């Protein structure tokens, strides 16, 4: 490193910052300041010597016309006021926040991340500040492109350093979210006198700050340097070999002609035409924003910055492979692609160029244990000397040199001196070829060494805190003498507290233990806070939700101390609190458009959907979820099953497992499952069971498993063991039915088949051969000759607290018939997955709900749920199916309430009533009217796969 570069680095990382040249100043007290700014989103106002906005939405953007080039370290300085005020920088789009960084306040935290089309926002860090910016506050971001990082200061105090700089060049702008935010000025200061683009130099490494277009010619790659309007030829090492002026902006190729077929990108699909211009069936699978298309005789390759992937299609439209660049830290937004040599594809990924084999092989290590050593082998993809870095949690990294095989194809490293039953991280170098090399972020793989005794089951015990605010009072903000109509608040009863302490926590402890293959156990500390939670503790304005604010944080710290622990000892915090919406509503504030008219609160707060825990003081160690408890139907078990699942997502992300599925996006997960509990079970099961042990959170513990079948033998500290389940600790398959004891235990999401009975449901079918071993139900329905003479197939019964009901099905070529015979009038809910491919996939999901309170009945819901997109949330289509076409009849036969529903044939939406047709069905009944709580025939949200005979 030369002396000048070293000096500049010292300047940007030192404190205080020395004087810099003024590149750009926007003083909002100047009446002409607005001429240089463009509102991208939101209603921004230039008045009273400042610019302000008071939005209800998040991430509103005001863009300047000033473009920053990272020719030297530079600083963005802004004077702001507002709890969610901040800045954007690195904007490349004129009217979009995509491809930019965002830094903003979130109360007493600063949230850091970036925007790409693949996600609305990708959080990378959360830093804590002492106070909210409720008064004028100076925020500075010091950016150094060469070292791929930026530093954040608040009122000249260093807050943190972000090591993930992706977009160092581009426009700067102001950001504001939810609430009043104000700004006095914004400055850009640089360490050189002028802000000019860096000019590429011959035979020097090329630094692509914005590379969207490339093409290959022989051994060279030609990229379009957007900032200099040049075409730059580089070799595979990334050295500049030729520079020429671009007479026009080259366009990314979006079409190809192969084997007599024309392929062209159109929106989110690929259209196809034959030689006679006849249009063929388009390709639509999984794509979001395809931009580039190339083809050879074997396959079609498509880049998609929206999905941050490259797709490989066969010529029938099937996706045969996907490349996301996980072994180099993931693609950001791949644009132009081209073939490089015979077996390689070059990818322009905005801040880098990536090379990958056409079969899209990610670099995965093969690790073998040999005595006290581990041998790691991986594919060699570059001429860099290979090595492996190893570290146990919290320890320094050690480097182990590797050797390349004589044929140049494989790297091999030998690792020794590893402790038993210990978690380790390791990284391989190199992985894939990347230009520039420092943009490759090798995957951090995880390894747990086994215990010395092989007859043990290893599991992860996660310490969690369940804290409950027993009483909420509104009298601090709504005195009774002024607001007699407003209730004083609410106090949770002893029964409600006992439900939280036992049923809500126990159900989920069992749920996660079962679906993780007995690899994770929740270890709860349960604490009741008797001190009243006041309305002012919830929020400074009308409450929205209970965030981990000052009151919550102080209580968390106090409770931890009382229990003899540090706050950082907990892997997660669950907070339930008494609540009473006013006016009384059963819908959440999120769903109720009039919720702002009273004291209302959203269903839940917290989690970490994109891998960073809820922004608060302990965000990197303990995630947080808060959930109101307004009554018996407040779904507190769902609080842990789903809302806490966001914390699990964060724990995996912080441990190096970013591929853990998102608990709010079921449509991206390609499996057949239902909603809510069923979907969350599949998320847990999708993860490799050993990954639960490799988390950087929780404590590794062991228990006896003599037959190594994956189930503990006899351990009352665990949710289940073979002794309680009736299994034989000496046999892998106790009842000899062909299912291992672990497979029997995991037969359902919440239920087990019997370990000691080969026919658990007593339907005459061996458990291994039974498609539904938990239910004595014949999933095949006999066809009826016509609609007047129906052959009813008994289908089970449902018992609620105050009723019993027997259920039957029948079908003809015109209708599927459902019958309920109940001891009381019941509301009926039917979900039909017409194609049997999962509730969240396709345009074939039929929602039916009929209410009956004994005095009147009506069709409440009859519509389609469109889940045909792999990227967009489902949409309820309510104007296609007419309630007039859904026939039902209710008769009261001396207290036996018979309800028959005729669901018509809908072949255009996948519900084609014909022999051999398979579809999924979920059935629920209730006597109270509640959106969420149903007595179900199967496990909660499970969809039985039926077949028409």
Task: Describe the protein.
By secondary structure, this protein is mostly beta strands. Helices cover 10% and strands 38% of the residues. It is built from nine helices and 60 strands. The strands form eleven sheets. Strands 1, 3, 4, 6, 11, 12, 13 and 15 form an eight-stranded antiparallel β-sheet that branches. Strands 48, 52, 53, 54, 55, 58, 59 and 60 form an eight-stranded mixed β-sheet that branches. Strand 31 and strand 32 (373-379) form a beta hairpin. The protein is globular.
Spatial extent as radius of gyration:
30 Å
Task: Give the biggest beta sheet.
Answer: 8 strands, antiparallel
Residue stretches low in confidence (pLDDT < 50, at least 5 long) are 1-17
Number of helices: 9
Task: Give the DSSP E fraction (strand runs of 2 or more residues).
Answer: 35-45%
The shape is: globular
What is the share of helical residues? 10-25%
Which structural category fits the helices and strands? mainly beta
CA distance, first residue to last residue? 76 Å
**Number of DSSP strand runs:** 60
Would you tell me the overall average pLDDT?
90
């Amino acid at each position: 490193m030369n002396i000048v570069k070293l000096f500049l680095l010292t300047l940007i990382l030192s404190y205080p910052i020395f004087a810099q040249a003024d590149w750009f100043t926007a003083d909002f007290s100047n009446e002409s300041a607005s001429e240089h700014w463009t509102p991208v989103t939101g209603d921004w106002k230039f008045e009273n010597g400042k610019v302000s906005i008071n939005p209800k939405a998040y991430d509103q953007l005001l863009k300047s016309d000033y473009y920053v080039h990272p020719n030297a370290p530079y600083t963005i300085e802004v004077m702001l006021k507002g709890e969610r005020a901040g800045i954007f920088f690195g904007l490349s789009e004129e009217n979009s926040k995509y491809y930019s960084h965002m830094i903003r306040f979130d109360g007493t935290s600063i949230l850091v991340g970036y925007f790409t089309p693949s996600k609305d926002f990708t959080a990378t860090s959360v830093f804590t500040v002492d106070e909210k910016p409720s008064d004028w506050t100076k925020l500075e971001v010091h950016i150094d492109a060469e070292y791929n990082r930026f530093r954040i200061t608040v009122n000249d105090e260093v807050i943190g350093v972000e090591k993930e700089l992706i977009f160092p060049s581009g426009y700067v702008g102001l950001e504001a979210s939810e609430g009043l935010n104000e700004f006095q000025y914004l400055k850009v200061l640089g360490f050189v006198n002028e802000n000019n683009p860096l000019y590429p130099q011959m035979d020097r490494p090329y630094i692509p700050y914005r590379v969207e277009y490339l093409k290959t010619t022989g051994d060279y790659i030609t990229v379009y340097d957007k900032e200099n309007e040049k075409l730059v030829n580089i070799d595979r090492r990334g050295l500049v070999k030729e520079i020429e002026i671009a007479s026009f902006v080259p366009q990314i190729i979006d079409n190809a002609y192969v084997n007599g077929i024309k392929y062209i990108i159109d929106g989110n699909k690929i259209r196809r035409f034959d030689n006679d211009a006849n249009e063929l069936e388009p390709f639509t699978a999984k794509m979001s924003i395809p931009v580039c298309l190339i083809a050879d005789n074997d396959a079609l390759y498509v880049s998609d910055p929206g999905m941050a992937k490259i797709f490989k299609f066969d010529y029938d439209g099937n996706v045969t492979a996907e490349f996301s660049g996980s072994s180099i830290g993931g693609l950001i937004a791949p644009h132009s692609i081209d073939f490089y040599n015979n077996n390689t594809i070059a990818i322009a990924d905005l801040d880098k160029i990536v090379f990958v084999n056409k079969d899209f092989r990610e670099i995965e290590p093969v690790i073998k244990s040999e005595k006290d050593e581990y041998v790691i082998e991986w594919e060699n993809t570059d001429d860099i000397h290979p090595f492996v870095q190893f570290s146990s949690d919290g320890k320094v990294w050690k480097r182990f040199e590797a050797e390349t095989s004589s044929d140049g194809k494989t790297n091999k490293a030998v690792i020794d001196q590893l402790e038993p039953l210990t978690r380790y991280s390791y990284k391989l170098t190199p992985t894939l070829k990347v230009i520039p090399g420092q943009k490759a972020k090798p995957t951090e793989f995880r390894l747990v060494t086994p215990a010395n005794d092989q007859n043990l089951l290893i599991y992860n015990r996660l310490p969690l805190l369940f804290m409950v605010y027993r009483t909420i009072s509104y009298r601090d903000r709504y005195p009774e003498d002024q607001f007699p109509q407003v209730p004083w608040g609410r106090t949770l009863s002893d029964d409600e507290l006992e439900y939280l302490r036992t049923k809500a926590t126990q159900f989920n402890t069992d749920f996660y233990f079962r679906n993780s293959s007995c690899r994770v156990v929740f270890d709860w500390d349960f604490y009741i806070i008797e001190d009243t939670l006041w309305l002012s503790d919830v929020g400074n304005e009308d409450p929205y939700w209970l965030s981990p604010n000052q009151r919550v944080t102080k209580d968390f710290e106090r409770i931890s101390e009382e229990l003899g622990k540090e706050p950082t000892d907990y892997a997660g915090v669950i907070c339930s609190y008494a609540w009473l919406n006013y006016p009384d509503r059963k819908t959440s504030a999120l769903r109720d458009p009039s919720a702002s008219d009273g004291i209302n609160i959203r269903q839940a707060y917290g989690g970490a959907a994109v891998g960073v825990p809820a922004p608060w003081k302990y965000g990197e160690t303990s995630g947080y979820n808060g959930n109101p408890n307004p009554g018996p139907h407040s779904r507190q078990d769902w609080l842990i099953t789903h809302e806490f699942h966001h914390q699990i997502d964060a724990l995996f992300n912080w441990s190096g497992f970013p591929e853990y599925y998102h608990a709010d996006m079921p449509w991206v997960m390609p499996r057949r499952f239902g909603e809510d509990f069923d979907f969350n079970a599949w998320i847990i099961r999708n993860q490799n069971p050993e990954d639960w042990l490799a988390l950087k959170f929780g404590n590794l513990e062991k228990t006896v498993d003599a037959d190594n079948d994956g189930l503990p033998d006899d351990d009352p500290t665990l949710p289940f063991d073979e002794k309680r389940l009736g299994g034989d600790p000496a046999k892998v398959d106790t009842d000899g039915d062909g299912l291992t004891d672990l497979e029997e235990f995991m037969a359902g999401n919440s239920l087990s088949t019997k370990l000691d009975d080969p026919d658990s449901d007593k339907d005459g079918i061996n458990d291994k051969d039974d498609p539904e071993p938990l239910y004595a139900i014949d999933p095949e329905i006999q066809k009826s000759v016509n609609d007047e003479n129906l052959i009813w197939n008994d289908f089970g019964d449902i018992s609620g607290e105050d009723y019993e009901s027997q259920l039957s099905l029948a079908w003809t070529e015109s209708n599927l018939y459902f019958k309920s015979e109940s001891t009381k009038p019941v509301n009926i809910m039917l979900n039909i997955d017409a194609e049997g491919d999962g509730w969240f996939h396709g345009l074939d999901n039929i929602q039916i709900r009929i209410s009956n309170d004994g005095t009147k009945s009506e069709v409440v819901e009859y519509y389609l749920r469109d889940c045909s997109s792999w990227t967009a949330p489902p949409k309820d289509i309510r104007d296609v199916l007419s309630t007039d076409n859904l026939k039902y009849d209710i008769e009261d036969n001396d207290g036996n309430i018979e309800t028959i529903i005729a669901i018509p044939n809908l072949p255009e939406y996948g519900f084609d009533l014909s022999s051999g047709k398979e579809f999924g069905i979920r059935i629920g009944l209730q006597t109270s009217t509640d959106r969420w709580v149903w007595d179900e025939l199967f496990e909660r949200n499970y969809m039985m796969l039926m077949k028409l005979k």
